[in-house]
Amino acid sequence: MVENKQKTESVQKASGSAVQVAPSPHLSSSSLTTQRMMLDVIIALLPVILTALYVFQWYAVKQLFICVASCLTAETLFMKMRNKPFSLNDYSATVTGLILALSLPGTAPWYVGVIASFVAIGIGKVIFGGLGMNIFNPAMVGRAFVMLAFASTLGASGYEDVTSAVNAITQATPMTVFKQAGIIAPLSDLFWGLSNGSLGETSAIASIIGGFYLCIRRTASWEIPASVIIVTAILGGIVNLINPQLEWTVLHHMFGGALLFGAFFIATDPVTSPLTTRGKFIFGAGVGAFIMLLRLFSGYPEGVMFAVLLMNALTPLINNWTIPRPLGKLLEP
Amino acid sequence: MADQPTPLERFIQGILPENPVYRQLLGLCPVLAVSNGLKPAITMSVAVAFVLLGANVLISLIRNLLKPHLRIVIFTLTIATFVTLADRFLAAYVYQMSKTLGPYIPLIIVNCIIICRCEVCASKQSVFAAASDAIGQSLGFALALSSIAVVREILGTGMLFGLRVLPTAWPDWVIMILPPGAFLTLGLLLGVINWIDSYKSKKSRSS
Question: Taking the domains of chain A in order of start, what are their residue ranges?
């Protein structure tokens, strides 16, 4: 037996160069690399970034620079600590930094961005084994950390700076105004993004343009944003039906806050969302439901971050539920 | 019993090589719950040390009378006696601290460090060995608890022992004094200690 085994091994070794045995898929597209996907995300983020630069000016420049620079530093540092190969050239850290910066308020002090980036890359990603191994969306881990750590600078009041030269920042965010005073922001402001908020979330149209690009390029799966938006619309519609006099309509729910930015750019992270089509629908629906739950019933004006993190935690379970049945396999009794 | 460690070994092992928190991962409930400041952490460590010493010595004294099937009950009763003593003592003399620690002092009864030491050491070895084991393990527990507390208190409030160590401009990391901070700090310190260990063993292997 042992002899046999050795024999086969030696045969395999001898023929190793002649016949190559590799697991499927055998016809893979070499253009589908991490690098290309991340570049696509960066391209898709351009409209959002440009709007942020237009609306928030220096605040956006500062925040984007801090977050991207600290994410790259953190990635280099932590990968070196874990003796992993150099990984800046797949742009994943850049994307994490960009999304993180766009999810923070422009008024946040410099250390918020730095700490959030280090937590995002360190605790959110590298601890789990680097890119592709993380359970939670790194950018959202970083944001959740600073949100809990510096509640005063990232809470509702942190967004507002009355003395600022930038017009948008002198007002409170539309979500907060609605939550606290019940004042409804005009829909066009929410759509074009001329109101206050986190850097990337203000403009609905920018997120839609970038999101459509991502879905067409199939870098993001369309199932997730579609189901997020549908579920939000249904739940928002039910709320409107119950209270018809409410002026915060379904469209306000859609265009206000980080819903579209989150649906297109955060929830679609391929690492932390389910693999199967059915799973993606469940995931998106869960995100949408949690967002509405948090918006309507929690103390926070916005719930995209927590909704995505909660559904990230359920992703392994969803994957397990939705394993496709191989052709010809009998249904279990 | 020739194969049992000597009292000195017991003492040394408790501090770092077999640290109850960082090596055995025992008693994590108080470690996570009361480590948001150095003061409650030290009070907790003292209470645990008292209970551990008392229980270890008493169990060791009666170790020849223990019936195997009843030993856990006896352990628990002995520990509960000392915990009640510690709890009432704290309530009588440092009422405010006793309030802060809340249920975590009575919960020492179910702390696995103590029952583990009773089982592993005190029920098998002499009083002297049991006492030195208790002291070593308590020092290890105190070390672990205060190391976590130092990190959490400095980052969370900028203070140590209620005194300001960082400038007032320090932005308090509120998350560090909340429960998530306890988990993060414990995990990261555990990682640091494992890292130092593997570094050391790599060094000793190569030399």
Answer: 34-314
